[in-house]
Prior knowledge:
This protein is an alpha/beta fold. It has helices at 3-24, 41-56, 75-87, 98-107, 149-158, 174-190, 202-212, 226-230, 232-241, 251-255, 268-281, 303-308, 315-320; strands at 28-34, 65-71, 92-96, 113-116, 137-140, 164-169, 193-198, 218-222, 246-248, 260-264, 297-302, 323-325. α7 runs parallel beside α9 (232-241).
Amino acid sequence: MRRRDFLGVLSGAAAMWPLAARAQERVRRIGVLMGQPAGDPVVQARNAAFLQGMQELGWTIGRNVQIEYRWDLDEADHRRNAAELVALAPDVILTTGGISMGPLLQATRTVPIVFVQVTDPVGAGYVESLARPGGNATGFIPFEFGMSAKWLELLKEIAPGIKRVAVLRDAALALGMGQLGAIQSVAPSFGVELRPVGVADANEIERGITAFARDPNGALILTVGPGAIRHREMIIGLAARHKLPAVYPYRFFAADGGLIAYGPDTIEPYRRAAGYVDRILKGEKPADLPVQAPTRYETVLNLKTARALGLDVPAEVLVRADQVIE
């Protein structure tokens, strides 16, 4: 064989090696269990952040990773979707909220799980400790119960005349009761009476808020939970209709017309979760990856809603706000 022909063969073979390597690259499988309907804009933004994070780490759908989604609507969905995902034998599962963690851990104690938006994973028994989870799950908490007291403080700053506060929480979740307990611990110092209101379904929410609004000097605190997000438009609408100042746990409530929000960024943790999924796919164990807390909290004020409620927002609240919606 002539030298020029031999070099041509070598060149062609070298060009084929990357293609062959890609063809042989193992495709990993990720299960994603979201606690809300697929069409929810917040859920879409969270999923987009996760996918962006995965792409930045070198994972491409169809080339080296496959993602199986399940979307939850009610309790039966949680159990069925958890069982379906585990049966697919994924390399790792990403999930949202404590309401999905129980069914997942009932279905598997071996498949690695990365959770987001789980407030008390130690108390719920999902991990042994935040520093050393110890089992097959780790992830990201949105906050500790103690910060719930900040919501009442904000309400008194922005509407000092309030005497009664309805706390919307899910009584079926330890999360809801924990947040209520933190608010109750500081309520006497602010001189307010608290009234728990359930958020199990739309009818319970409407009945509770409507009954509460019959007496004057009232306000609302919406705690964290899947019902809060699912029914946020109705809750914001009821607060506006009954002229109730209200504080919410996430910025998108204020963006949708709520008065003020204080809480963590709910999108960034999904980008950070991609990092944990990547590390697990590369061989690390959830037991050795510490549960992480938010890096910052944000205050978002809807000034248009404040004006509609006749509130004169104090200058110190405006200065502290990370975003003011005009």
